[in-house]
Design a protein that fits this description.
143 residues, mainly alpha, 7 helices, 71% helix
Length: 143
């Protein structure tokens, strides 16, 4: 990884491998920092679905372990939506389902928060239906 860094080489696969290496060696904070830097610095990886999902998953794991990630998984997945082109339907479906799962599992501390969460889930479900339904009518790419 040091050689790749010295030569300024990077790819989503290399980043994911390095994150797994850091996690295997008990360095979740460094792994999360690497993902956040990679996604904020490089325009070529901004719409790489697996990097966003790995960051959200790591953030959730850190919270479960009593650690403080740089961003909560909900914020990460919302950013992923913003940076991923809408024609990337599969990516949006993955972000939607993961975001909905996190929101449904999160408890609400007040009625106001519960109502906001319910409204957001309704909107996400509508988007999910639109994207899912739209994929039935998409033109198959012969390549």
């Amino acid at each position: 990884y040091a050689n790749a860094k010295d030569k300024n080489l990077s790819s989503p696969s290399l980043t994911l491998d390095q994150v797994d290496y850091l996690l295997d060696n008990g360095k979740p904070t460094e792994a999360e920092f690497l993902l956040s830097q990679t996604l904020s610095d490089s325009n070529t990886t901004k719409n790489h679905v697996h990097l966003w999902l790995k960051w959200a998953e790591l953030s959730e794991r850190m919270i479960s372990a009593g650690m403080s990630p740089s961003l909560p998984p909900v914020v990460i997945l919302r950013r992923a939506f913003k940076h991923t082109p809408i024609h990337e339907r599969e990516a949006h479906l993955l972000f939607l389902t993961n975001l909905m799962k996190i929101l449904m599992l999160r408890s609400s501390s007040s009625e106001r928060e519960a109502a906001e969460k319910e409204n957001e889930l309704k909107g996400l479900f509508q988007q999910l239906l639109l994207l899912s339904r739209g994929s039935m009518y998409a033109i198959d790419d012969p390549t």
